[in-house]
Amino acid sequence: MLGRFPLIDGHNDLPWALRERARQDGGGVSQVVFDLDAPAGGLHTDLPRLAAGGVGAQFWSVYVPASLTGDGAVAAVLEQIDVARRMIACYPGSFGLALTADDVERVFASGRVASLLGAEGGHAIAGSLGVLRMLYALGVRYMTLTHNANVGWADSATDEPQAGGLTGFGRDVVREMQRTGMLVDLSHVSPDTMRDVLDVAAAPVIFSHSSARALCDSPRNVPDDVLARLTGNGGVCMVTFVPGFVSQECATWTAGLKAEAARRGLDPRNLDQLFSIKAEWERSHPRPGSTLAQVADHIEHVREVAGVEHVGLGGDFDGTDEVTAGLEDVSTYPALFAELLRRGWTEPECAALAGGNLLRAMRSAEAYALAAAAM
């Protein structure tokens, strides 16, 4: 089935995972090694598993930590774009760079994985619309407005509110993204930021890797009132597989870990600081798990609230050390579709979930940008 229409995953952190491996081996960004022909220990993604999973298109995240700001964040995101584009170019028989919805379909028809870029965190533009425009020129087709910390002009889901959603400049960022054709990604932002963006948005928005808050009360998930607004906006919530956003038990465990980090004077938004106590916390607080069936429940909930035209998939592989049972790596998507078919989903509905909805949102964003350019 996935050979007949493209499965488009909204978020994969492989470029950063490869950079981290190079750093741990004592090398810099120029020493990143691209060896995806066989499974590598600790990674969720490689060419054989992408093929086994029926992945037709992938948004590769050009993520940089929120601890980087100003010129450092800009330099790091440019380096990550370089890493991702070098990775794509290294495997011309398996990957093809995609900048438009038509590109996705063309590359998929050639038997390769259409490769798109998404920037994770508005701190990467350092408050500059010029930098934002240059990211688009370099191939970035969505930007997540925040990561784990506020950016001054938009509040994060996992930080103390400062702006109360978007500031005036934040609204300018949203307008400029949509004027260029870049998708606004609302994963990681606060509910008030989500609502403010939807008040401003003239083109579809996405959640590249978020699930339903009604089923798992994590601040990273999407409330029902926001999901309901996707129907009028044309946007897509791409359900993620991260256990802490899928299972309430896992979310509660993660909240406990963050509270312990704060108690020790660490910054729970800083992933390095959080991971420094994670193994110790897990020894005294065994980590619960999540299941493929729970992910399917989130997909069906988004469908129920927003409609089948507004749900997609964003696994967040290689962006987490925790995986859902049955969805351990990029080879496992067929098992999820088998579960949905078992629940009564039709093939056209599966095609919409897999990538049809995201392609529609991309085309709408592209059409809005063309119309704006003609004004």
What is the subunit organization of this protein?
A: single chain
- The radius of gyration is 19 Å
CATH class: Alpha Beta
What proportion of the residues form beta strands (DSSP E)? 5-15%
Structural class: alpha/beta
Uncertain regions spanning at least 5 consecutive residues? none
The end-to-end span amounts to 42 Å
CATH architecture, by name, is Alpha-Beta Barrel
Domain tally: 1
By CATH, the superfamily comes out as: Metal-dependent hydrolases
The CATH topology is what?
A: TIM Barrel
Compile the SSE list and pairings.
Elements (H helix, E strand, L loop, with lengths): L6 E6 L1 H11 L22 H6 L2 E9 L6 H21 L4 E3 L3 H9 L3 E8 L8 H9 L2 E5 L23 H13 L2 E3 L5 H10 L4 E3 L16 H10 L2 E4 L3 H4 L1 H16 L7 H6 L1 H7 L7 H15 L4 E3 L19 H10 L4 H28 L1
Parallel strand pairs: 1-2, 2-4, 3-4, 4-5, 5-6, 6-7, 7-8, 8-9
Structure description:
The chain is α/β, with parallel strands linked by helices and 375 residues long. The protein has one domain: TIM Barrel (Alpha-Beta Barrel), CATH 3.20.20.140. It has helices at residues 14-24, 47-52, 70-90, 101-109, 129-137, 168-180, 191-200, 224-233, 243-246, 248-263, 271-276, 278-284, 292-306, 333-342, 347-374; strands spanning 7-12, 55-63, 95-97, 113-120, 140-144, 183-185, 205-207, 236-239, 311-313. Strand 6, helix 7 and strand 7 form a beta-alpha-beta unit. The mean pLDDT is 96.
